[in-house]
Design brief:
Elements: H1 2-14, E1 28-32, E2 35-38, H2 39-47, H3 49-55, H4 72-88, H5 93-107, H6 111-120, H7 125-146, H8 154-165, E3 174-182, H9 190-205, H10 210-217, E4 228-233, H11 239-245, E5 257-259, E6 263-273, H12 277-309, E7 313-315
Antiparallel strand pairs: 1-2, 1-7, 3-4, 3-6, 5-6
């Protein structure tokens, strides 16, 4: 039966029917597991891109949304990723209907008014229904898999502010530093001194706070206060340490620096200030929103890559299925 259907379709491509029309074959542009991505799907994406921007909670942050005229292959890849999301977070028709009813109630419009408004913009109710389903699926992905992995700290916000917004005023910065100093003359050899500070570095890397490690390993007089040097202007920091500190992020710990024959250092950049803290407070929430959006996309990308590793994906023209 399938063979006869295929032959009929093939013949219809070349021979017109009695009513004067020809049957046009759709073209497969890719497959993902049991799903096909057709040329008509690509055309529908282009047609509904404006509606998608309104209904897809993740679309505005995606790479494809930033392209004025994405290629067919870029759209196919995007649609494949959406199929992976829909497979993992399936949404029933009833759930879609409930969401649309809620939208209608909140906006005080009837189904007839909604359909008419969509038609006026060049969209069908079926387009709207499909994109609402997709939006619900992507929200489920975010709620169940992504949200708990996104955390923007105060240090992240400060780093963005001082490097992206106020980077040109770097010379006015003051740096709050913590330090661990190991003096080789207190050891049998410089090798023992280096081993000692390396052990300190390992403990910090494993999660022990810098301050606790400083009390245990540092030879400096600040060891009892966790190596706290307070805020220092750039001119008050030695050239060797300054070269490292000015490239660090808040909360970051330096590699081992110094000279194994004189002194070895570990530096933590605990904070920065520049006299622009009022501006920082005003822009804090905006920065957090921007950083969160970027991190959401990064985590979604990781999630999709894991899904692709366990899926069968093939693009048009490829003879080998990727998994």
């Amino acid at each position: 039966m399938r063979i006869l259907s295929f032959i009929f379709t093939l013949l219809a491509l070349f021979f017109p029917l009695d009513n004067g029309f020809c049957i046009t074959l759709d073209r497969q542009e890719g497959t993902v597991n049991t799903h096909q991505i057709l040329l008509s799907d690509v055309a529908l994406f282009r047609k509904t891109i404006g509606l998608r921007a309104q209904l897809d909670p993740l679309f505005s942050q995606s790479e494809i949304s930033k392209k004025q005229n994405p290629t067919d292959s870029e759209i196919v890849t995007f649609l494949i990723e959406e199929k992976l999301i829909l497979d993992q977070f399936s949404i029933k028709d009833q759930e879609v209907g409930q969401e649309i009813n809620s939208i209608q109630v909140n906006n005080k419009i009837s189904r007839k008014m909604l359909t008419a408004a969509l038609k006026e913009q060049g969209y069908s109710f079926e387009d709207y229904f499909s994109l609402i389903r997709l939006g619900l699926s992507k929200r489920s992905l975010v709620d169940r898999e992504i949200r708990t992995r996104v955390f923007i700290s105060d240090d992240d916000i400060k780093n963005y502010f001082y490097n992206q917004i106020q980077g040109s005023g770097r010379k006015s910065f003051e740096y709050h530093l913590n330090i661990i100093i190991v003096t080789p003359e207190n050891f049998k050899s410089s090798k023992f001194a280096y081993d000692w500070i390396e052990q300190a570095k390992k403990e910090i890397s494993s999660g022990t706070s810098f301050e606790v490690v400083a009390k245990k390993y540092s030879d400096d007089s600040t060891a009892s206060t966790g190596g706290d040097l307070g805020f220092l202007k750039e001119d008050d920091i030695s050239k060797q340490i300054r070269a490292v500190v000015t490239k660090m992020k808040v909360g970051e710990v330096s590699p081992i620096i110094g000279n194994k024959d004189t002194a070895l250092f570990l530096i933590k950049l605990a904070n920065i200030r520049s006299g622009q803290e009022e501006l920082l407070d005003k822009t804090k929430e905006k920065i957090k929103t921007e950083l969160s959006a970027v991190e959401y996309q990064r985590q979604i990308k990781f999630w999709l890559e894991r899904q692709k590793q366990n899926s069968f994906i093939r693009l048009a023209g490829q003879s080998v299925i990727k998994n």
